[in-house]
Amino acid sequence: MTPDTVTGVYGYFRDTYCRPDGIEVVVHEYEITATVAAGVGGLQVVRELTARPGALPFPECPAAAATDVRLHGVPLGEIEPEVRLRLVGPHGCTHLNDLLRTLRLVEPMTTLFRATRGEPNQ
Q1: Contact 103, 68 (CB under 8 A)
Q2: What is the DSSP letter of 52?
Q3: At what angle do helices 79-86 and 94-101 cross, to 10 degrees?
Q4: Which residues lie below 8 Å from residue 101, measured CB to CB, with a gap of 6+?
Q5: Higher model confidence: residue 121 or residue 58?
Q6: N or C terminus: fewer CB in 10 A for the chain?
Q7: Which residues on neighbouring strands pair with residue 65, listed in sequence order?
Q8: Collapsed DSSP state (helix, strand, coil) of residue 63
Q9: Mean pLDDT of the residues in the chain
Q10: Cα–Cα distances in Å, from 33 out to 5, 7, 17, 67, 118?
């Protein structure tokens, strides 16, 4: 990818359970939007990142979404260990962590997508 290539990302996490009466209940729900682009050395890095909480079980849960800014500038190849390192305690909701760690897949998925469309991998 060239330095001026910006990739938009959308992610959604939701888990549910089914009550004995058959009603599905949402337990945790997060959405993320992000942009990634080439940073220093051409590595793809997180440029912008926003997490939006949806249904969550405890009052402290939505606070975890505010911690996502800690990942600005992190190379995608380092996102998994950085999420584990930076988002800990009450600010490190495991459900949000799971969703944020999927950002590591953006570059290979973008490359595969372009290849299947016959586009050059910029």
Answers
A1: no
A2: E
A3: 160
A4: 79, 80, 83, 84
A5: 58
A6: C
A7: none
A8: helix
A9: 86
A10: 17, 11, 26, 14, 26
